[in-house]
């Protein structure tokens, strides 16, 4: 017989017996033996090798492998022909590969440390009874059979069966997704495990009362742990940026290897020496591989993650920065994300109308009665108690009603699960008063009068009760949580022996409290931005369909005239196949109510089958599988569980939907900026490749050495690329539709623009000055020049300086796709100004500073020739500006 199924059916003595425990608790020896047998009460799976695998992964991308292979070739060339500088080049290439890998690993490690700081959801210590004494233990030391003591404010550390209860109320939202308080009992119940009111589950919060419970499941055996395991079993797909980067790396690697191998073989057949061919092959590879691009990618993502953090969006995986910007659909929960996760009174209604009570005396009487039936304590000037009671107290203060009671004999009857109401006695305006609040169906039979504002209210009629029924239904259908409040005056103060049943007679219905979890004020504007950005928002909640519809209407997920037929419940969803669900989503259904964890994941997977990039929000354990299955899992930082946060890539520090939209804008900006600096970096590949092609095909000197190419890729191009990565969001970026999964970072248009337009322009102008310096120095076509020849050093120096200067014009032009880039924002980007200054100073220093000349193999040129290199800036900027103007004119 399975005790997990039966535990809720047993009486107290049987509970102790079945779990091998007793009212005095386990002995220390029993607890130690069980701890050895079942293990610690934790759901975390420790992977000792995860960081090692992460570091190893940084060395396995194509660019890194290619750089390491090039470094190896340099070592071989140095061995075959010493003194050619290949050792230094090989060390530089290996150093670049190592630094890039370590930098990427460092960012992942930093994000992991941030996650570890957040994993504090389950309680650190708990109180248990062992050997008939109360002990304070670490929660992970709990074992089945332990007798746990629960108090108001505690977080339940394991699945437990209640054996003693005093007004115990819990919030099961972390597990079920529903924030409604649940009153517990110690009596046996005949219901399924997850619906049993004599059980409390790991991760849930004790709102009120106290009690004792026997632990029956710990660690991965809890409902909490089962969902955690399910989330770990879900494999997250490769992020959009990872696919884009891999695609780009494959293309550039094939180009580099193809050209390198082709011209190596050409050199062999032409009779060139082996070491010379190796040097040449390395040069072709280095010229085609933008060595600084991947570090710049990582840096741009890291800077984007910092900007997101300032907007309360914590990124635990760098690729999620860009992935969030690619979002096409947001699947959001309700409580705490769209709403404030607190109950508030939206309306005070009389017995026979859904409109707000206007009469001041009736409003005051209704609130006083509600307070009389509430139990609120003030701790450090904060209200403590049931969320409903706190909402009543806040409304009373807003209407300037006193919460203080001067009656020492005040009685309170806690919420009773069977009666579905709470009650109390207090002195109101000097008069002893009894009041109840709770479910309408439980208070209806107790009524004798309706409060209609007159001193002598007549007896209630059946017709009036039917009108009150209608008021209750209309408020509930509007998405409110509705409580009925009734009361009566007492002839004298009740005695200690007076029972609740004795007092509950001849009551007068004061009216109804319509409570709601208020919408966050900034959410409607955020949802409007989603619509403008072409992002679909779908509400998936465990709440009642009427509540879900009311929230969706009020915040703008669906139009105000949307009917309840546009809602799909979990029961209906269960009957649909994946194909049928895809049809439903295609039809435009945007509200799913009463959903289970498996159904949330089913919705996410159906959307992904439609090639949608899906972001999923969640805070509870029940959300973890869907968070892991989504392209971008977004967990709540304030109210979320550690399992939800561990399953997510993004954590909202303020639990606010509006922060998601701010993050999407930042993510789109990061990707847009990545395209900018990818375009910028690849332009310099053109003037780096063409000299090698001319060198192998024609009897001319090589215009750029490999070291000089590395100066461009790893030196002067890095700072401007970082500056482009810091460009602020374009004002129109959230008016553009989201890009699809097939949108390429390295698109054919970008390749043509980089290599065959701007790259070719840079190559022609820089090589033109190279041959101009050679020609004016007396060089003849076909003449060989030594690498130490002053004329050759001057010619190669002006080539490098020209490329650096032309990259300034390219940099400013890359700021916008359709605008020039010469606006006020240019001077505000200090990093860009610094990058421009570095390009200018370096272009001058490599020609006229002796130490740099010796390092790079360059030489000086006459000032008029250096000034001709400056003409490359307006040349490339103007040519690109003309292209933009023609593109805009055609559009």
Could you explain how this protein is built, in words?
The strands form four sheets. Strands 8-24-23-22-9-19-21-20 form an eight-stranded mixed sheet, with helices on both faces. Strands 1, 2, 3, 4, 5, 6 and 7 form a seven-stranded antiparallel sheet that branches. Strands 10, 13, 14, 15, 16, 17 and 18 form a seven-stranded mixed sheet that branches. Helix content is 50%, strand content 15%. The longest helix has 33 residues, at 86-118. It starts with a helix and ends with a helix. The chain has 891 residues and is of the alpha/beta class. The model is unreliable at 1-5 and 117-123 (pLDDT under 50). It is elongated and about 120 Å long. The chain folds into four domains: 3-44 and 120-233, Calcium-transporting ATPase, cytoplasmic transduction domain A (Distorted Sandwich); 55-109 and 238-306 and 668-728 and 746-890, Calcium-transporting ATPase, transmembrane domain, CATH 1.20.1110; 314-340 and 520-663, 3-Layer(aba) Sandwich (Rossmann fold), CATH 3.40.50.1000; 348-516, Calcium-transporting ATPase, cytoplasmic domain N (3-Layer(aba) Sandwich), CATH 3.40.1110.10. It has 35 helices and 24 strands. Helix 5 runs antiparallel to helix 10 (274-288), helix 10 packs antiparallel against helix 26 (685-697) and helix 30 (790-813) packs antiparallel against helix 32 (830-848).
